[in-house]
């Protein structure tokens, strides 16, 4: 039997799907880069526009409000127009938003650009999963989704030292113009390369596997209408426990990582921008480690996923307790350790939130449940970013910098909200603790 050459292989369904995966992964990478990018240019916006912390919080939160808001319509459009069209159109919207942000003469236009970016990048994750469900076998779906998430967190990683280096080299405006051009190129590639299913290119469907069907977010019985699914999910107490925990933990965590981490390191610890960007890499780096490792361990330990998730939340909360013990300024050598631990716990917790939500419902409801749970952290971030800016402004800036007291108030709020997040999900683990 002859082995097909490279050109022949890419023309088969099994080969072509990796080209599809590559395009979607790059676009999702850019989506996550935008999620964290304000922390790198916060000082630039303060100096150029005279923005205070509240204005920075409102600007940064615009992404998260719109990202969360478009998730339901993106899912419906993916089912009607097809994921290829959705990804292409929304990538173009993101490109317009990035360019508008780079051209912004003030915080108002910058906020509008950030909002358009949130809308645009909100149109890749759900249609991406829908495409994967047609191009990969059910037994491959979970693994490929995990790799897809890893690409996204590589975007978070790049929004630290690499983006800092780019901004120092080119300036913040030119850096965002460059990102806008890359986004436009990816929108064109999405239209040319993406394909909703193998049959659209004249290939046979990916061979189904024998045995009972695995959970599939897109194979929901027609007899169960949207209202029925919504009622079933929202009537389950466990759904609200997980969703509220995700809201109270995810909002403060994303706010710090995406808005205040670099200013905190430069204002309080006196690090240079490049050093602060390097320190920030420990957060997404830990996330990339924690998501697969803790998820793998949770599948194999006798305690169960629900008990593991409370353990990761306790460890993450303990890191914030360290900031409180040291009145907002732990020793500099502790920062990488704390950031790495927070990232590992955050990554593990996120994968477990999704896994626990799947456990609460039958297969035909998991797509609805996860779709409703997923925006919680982004909505929490959208609400907490302006509030954290308000807390900072109550203390006030000294020149372009904020004193440690301002950040300390934010850390107190982080700890309290995350403690609530731990408290609301703990009852889910009680039966498992009693059985162990």
Automatic annotation (TrEMBL):
Keywords: Lysosome, Membrane, Transmembrane, Transmembrane helix, Transport. One of its GO terms (molecular function) is transmembrane transporter activity. Residues 20-430 form the Major facilitator superfamily (MFS) profile domain. PROSITE patterns: MFS. The keyword Membrane applies. Pfam families: MFS_1. It is a multi-pass membrane protein. It is found in: Lysosome membrane. GO terms for cellular component: lysosomal membrane. InterPro entries: MFS, MFS_dom, MFS_trans_sf, MFSD1, Sugar_P_transporter. The chain crosses the membrane at residues 16-37, 49-69, 81-103, 109-129, 141-168, 174-194, 239-262, 274-296, 308-327, 333-356, 363-387, 407-430. It catalyses: L-lysyl-L-lysine(out) = L-lysyl-L-lysine(in); L-lysyl-L-alanine(out) = L-lysyl-L-alanine(in); L-alpha-aminoacyl-L-histidine(out) = L-alpha-aminoacyl-L-histidine(in); L-aspartyl-L-lysine(out) = L-aspartyl-L-lysine(in). Belongs to the major facilitator superfamily. Homodimer. Interacts with lysosomal protein GLMP (via lumenal domain); the interaction starts while both proteins are still in the endoplasmic reticulum and is required for stabilization of MFSD1 in lysosomes but has no direct effect on its targeting to lysosomes or transporter activity. Lysosomal dipeptide uniporter that selectively exports lysine, arginine or histidine-containing dipeptides with a net positive charge from the lysosome lumen into the cytosol. Could play a role in a specific type of protein O-glycosylation indirectly regulating macrophages migration and tissue invasion. Also essential for liver homeostasis. This is Lysosomal dipeptide transporter MFSD1.
């Amino acid at each position: 039997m002859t082995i097909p050459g490279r050109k022949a292989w890419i023309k088969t369904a099994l080969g072509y799907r990796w080209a599809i995966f590559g395009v979607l992964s790059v676009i999702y990478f850019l989506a996550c880069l935008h999620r964290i990018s304000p922390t790198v240019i916060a000082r630039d916006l303060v100096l150029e526009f005279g923005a205070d912390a509240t204005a920075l919080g409102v600007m940064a939160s615009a992404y998260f409000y719109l990202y969360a808001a478009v998730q339901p319509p993106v899912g419906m459009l993916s089912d009607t127009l097809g994921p290829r069209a959705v990804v292409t159109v929304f990538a173009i919207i993101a490109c317009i938003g990035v360019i508008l942000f780079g051209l912004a003469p003030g915080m108002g236009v910058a906020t509008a650009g950030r909002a358009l970016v949130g809308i645009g990048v909100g149109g890749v994750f759900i249609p991406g999963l829908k495409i994967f469900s047609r191009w990969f076998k059910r037994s491959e779906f979970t693994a490929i989704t995990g790799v897809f998430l890893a690409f996204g967190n590589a975007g978070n990683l790049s929004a630290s030292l690499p983006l800092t280096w780019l901004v120092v080299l080119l300036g913040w405006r030119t850096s965002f113009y460059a990102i806008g051009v890359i986004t436009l190129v990816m929108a064109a590639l999405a239209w040319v390369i993406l394909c909703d299913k193998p049959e659209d290119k004249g290939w046979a469907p990916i061979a189904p596997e024998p045995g009972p069907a695995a959970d599939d977010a897109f194979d929901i019985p027609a007899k169960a209408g949207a209202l029925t699914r919504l009622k079933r999910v929202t009537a389950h107490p466990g759904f609200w426990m997980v969703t509220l925990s995700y809201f109270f933990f995810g909002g403060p965590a994303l706010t710090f990582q995406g808005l205040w981490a670099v200013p905190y390191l430069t204002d309080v610890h006196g690090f240079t921008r490049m050093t602060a960007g390097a320190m920030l890499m420990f957060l997404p780096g830990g996330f990339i480690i924690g998501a697969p490792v803790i998820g793998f361990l949770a599948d194999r330990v006798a305690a169960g996923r629900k008990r593991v998730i409370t353990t990761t939340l306790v460890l993450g909360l303990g890191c914030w307790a360290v900031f409180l013990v040291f009145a907002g300024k732990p020793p500099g050598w502790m920062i990488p350790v704390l950031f790495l631990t927070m990232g590992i716990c955050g990554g593990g917790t996120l994968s477990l939130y999704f896994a626990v939500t799947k456990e609460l419902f039958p297969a035909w409801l998991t797509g609805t449940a996860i779709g409703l749970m997923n925006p919680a952290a982004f909505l929490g971030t959208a609400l907490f970013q302006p509030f954290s800016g308000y807390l900072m402004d109550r203390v006030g800036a000294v020149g372009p910098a904020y004193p440690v007291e301002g950040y300390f108030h934010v850390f107190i709020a982080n700890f309290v909200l995350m403690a609530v997040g731990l408290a609301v999900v703990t009852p889910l683990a009680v039966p498992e603790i009693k059985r162990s």
